[in-house]
């Protein structure tokens, strides 16, 4: 089951990244607005309070991944 979850997560991330790039290419969202969306998403995970330690670990890991994207470690910041 874990492989299915990993693959689903990778696919979802790729789809979201492609959508953000398409929105930028179509001049619907600027790079600054896209970075705002990503910052909001990271903050959501950083502020999530869970009753289970494993959920907190997943939220911290999700926030860290989004922060790496914001830092430019993928193609969203290609402009």
Q: Which regions have little confidence, pLDDT < 50, spanning 5+ residues?
A: none
Arithmetic mean pLDDT:
86
Oligomer: single chain
* String of helices and strands: HHH
Count of helical regions: 3
Ends apart, CA distance between termini: 38 Å
Helix content: over 70%
Main β-sheet description: none
Beta fraction? under 5%
Shape designation: globular
Structural class computed from helices and strand pairing: mainly alpha
Number of DSSP E strands = 0
How is this structure best described in words?
It contains three helices and no strands. The chain is mostly helical. The protein has one domain (2-77). The longest helix is centred in the first third of the chain and has 24 residues, at 2-25.
Labels describing this entry:
single chain; globular; 73% helix; 79 residues; mainly alpha
In short:
By secondary structure, the protein is mostly helical. The chain contains 3 helices and no strands. The protein has helices spanning 2-25, 31-46, 53-70.
Provide the fold topology:
Blueprint: H1 2-25, H2 31-46, H3 53-70
Helix pairs in contact: 2-3
């Amino acid at each position: 089951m874990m492989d299915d979850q990993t693959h689903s997560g990778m696919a979802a991330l790729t789809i979201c990244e492609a959508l953000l790039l398409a929105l930028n290419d179509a001049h619907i969202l600027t790079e600054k607005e896209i970075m705002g969306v990503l910052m909001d998403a990271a903050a959501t995970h950083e502020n999530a309070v869970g009753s289970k330690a494993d959920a907190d670990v997943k939220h911290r890991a999700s926030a860290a991944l989004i922060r790496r994207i914001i830092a430019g470690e993928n193609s969203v910041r290609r402009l």
